[in-house]
Write a structure and sequence with these properties.
The chain has about 250 residues and is mainly alpha-helical. The chain has a domain of about 30 residues. The protein has 9 helices and no strands. Helix 4 runs antiparallel to helix 8.
């Protein structure tokens, strides 16, 4: 009896130790989980992004197309852009000639079909009434006007001489754009933009953590080099009159 009681006591003690070990391991796991999540939250997202890529791109159908959520629509847009680029750049077709030939073929087919329908005792085809809605035209014009005015306001602010960083960034961007424009046509540039829009967001969303990690390291190095450049060059350039200057 004494041996059995000792065995039961030893079993109870071992069970208690196992329970405490399991609870300690659970506590350790619970402590590790927030630390891992905090590490993920500490990663500086690209361009200070705090929202998902889908919402940054505007959400809805366009974001689904850019991120290949709707594969059929994405393939259709990219395939159509590729066909237009091949047609006008590689085959060197002219837009005006192509539009005229398309209209000639369409009008001739509809005209012949309408006249042939009278001989075979069938009703002629109903051609739909095509027109641009007034609300759509007004909204497009207002949006275009707003964007143009905002761009002009930004250019005016940059030309005032108060924002040296923006001035240098805009000059570098325009110079780079002029180099690209001199080496390729506008249609090729537009096609390259469409291809980039359909590939870069998709790749970034797939390898988001890795790209953000290397981006953060690159930003730190760029800030170091800019601090040196600012101390040696930019700080010695005279600045324009400040906006808050009292007369």
């Amino acid at each position: 009896m004494a041996e059995r009681s000792e065995e039961t006591l030893m079993e109870k003690i071992s069970e208690k130790f196992r329970g405490s070990d399991s609870s300690d391991s659970d506590d350790d796991k619970s402590k590790l989980k927030p630390s891992q999540s905090s590490l993920k939250s500490k990663i500086n997202r690209l361009f200070g992004r705090e929202r998902p890529v889908h919402s940054v791109l505007g959400g809805g159908k366009p974001a689904d197309i850019f991120l290949w959520k709707d594969k059929k629509a994405s393939a259709a847009v990219l395939g159509g852009a590729t066909a237009i680029w091949v047609l006008f750049e590689l085959m060197e077709c002219h837009l005006l000639s192509l539009v005229c030939h398309f209209l000639i073929f369409s009008l001739a087919a509809l005209f012949l079909w309408s006249n042939a329908a009278t001989f075979i005792n069938k009703s002629p085809p109903q051609i739909p009434q095509l027109s641009i809605p007034e609300d759509l035209a007004v909204n497009i014009a207002l949006s275009l006007r707003f964007e143009i005015n905002r761009s002009l306001a930004v250019l005016k602010e940059i030309a005032s001489g108060r924002e040296l960083k923006k001035f240098l960034a805009v000059i570098a961007g325009l110079w780079l754009l002029s180099l690209i424009g001199s080496s390729c046509s506008f249609l090729t540039l537009l096609y390259a933009v469409i291809v980039l829009v359909h590939t870069v967001p998709f790749v970034y969303e797939k390898y988001e953590d890795k790209i953000d990690f290397y981006w953060e390291k690159a930003v730190i190095e760029i800030k170091k080099q800019y601090a040196v450049f600012d101390a040696k060059v930019l700080s010695k350039i005279p600045k324009g009159p400040s906006k808050d200057k009292k007369h």
